[in-house]
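Hi Prof. W.,

I finally got the DUF1016 domain-containing protein prediction working! I wasn't sure whether to trim anything, so I left the full sequence exactly as given:
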Amino acid sequence: MKEEKYIQMLAQVQEQIKNAQLKTISAANSQMLLLYWKLGNVILQNQAQQGWGAKIIELLSADIKKEFPSLKGFSIRNLKYMRAFAESYQIPVIQQYNLIEIRLKTEGFSRNLVSQLLLSEENVIVQQPVAQLQNQDFNPILTQKAIEQSEETLFLSSILAKIPWSHHIVLIDKLGHVGKRLWYMLNSLEHGNSRNILTLQIESGLFERQVSNQKINNFTKNLPPVQSDFANYLLKDPYIFDFVQAQEKANERNIEEQLSQHISKFLLELGQGFAFIGRQVHIEIADTDFFIDLLFYHTKLHCYVVVELKARPFEPGDASQLNFYVNVVNDQMKTSHDNDTIGLLLCRGKNEVLAEYALRGFNTAIGISDYHFSKAIPDELKSSLPQIEDLENELTDIKS
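And this is what came out:
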């Protein structure tokens, strides 16, 4: 009995040690980021006050290495990133970040609120540093220490202290809009995205495709507010299937096969929470066989998601077909524990006016989006489609 109690105690101690180690690592990362931010501000302030140019960073890097030869992270390149880090995130910006995070938490992390808060530069104030002593009755040294302490507390409580430095470098290199940067930070924290995933998301314009682009759906009319907001947020337009080897004349079945073969990449593009149920899922109605192109279950929305794929532009009849499948899934598969099924129609282009008219009158939740085979968004990322030989090789591999 003593041995059993000891094993329980040991397990408890081991768990506490692991938790402490994680907290220590997290705290060390936050302190390192704070140091980088402070050093960046020192460089900024001295360059502004002394009129020093870029050469001062080279000199500073060399002298730091002489004084602290075992320390890494103070190369010329990294010091320049520290300067950019501090320049981007002055106190007014950090205050806005913290206020936005508070609102997102207190207002249920409304996805519509994300759009409203982050889309405009006006929502994130960008100013030059800040701390001016206005009351001469205070001891300047003590007051400055109090200001520094409050600034440190503000930084450490912000999302900036929770994101790895490698992610910050990607954001500095690829995004100038500090509102969009905050969205990618929140998204990376929520989903545990690696630096490579973050890079791919930015290069494919995920923010625009998921947040700022106008989407065509009837979710608001046919879903409860919380589910409608979340479903609309999850929907992208367009989707980018850059792993699919296909020509302009490829048919739906061929594309479905490849999406199924590359299901991990497909799920990554769809977004977090999608679980793959099957392809060409058989249903029978009135002694007639029908086949759903792709069927998923979303673990956060708690509902089935029917995906119909068209290798051509949208036609009004497509919405009716998808509506039919959604109704069948609601009747035959949905249980009392599931929310209403959502339909997603993916087309090679759409006329928005036609699509909006086609959705009118349906009581099922349907969204319509474009999809592309290559990273065609934004324009500078366009690449040529593969040659027919590549397609034939891909299909041969699938069949074999």
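Strands lie at 216-217, 239-240, 274-285, 288-298, 303-309, 342-347, 365-372. Does that look reasonable to you?

Thanks,
D.
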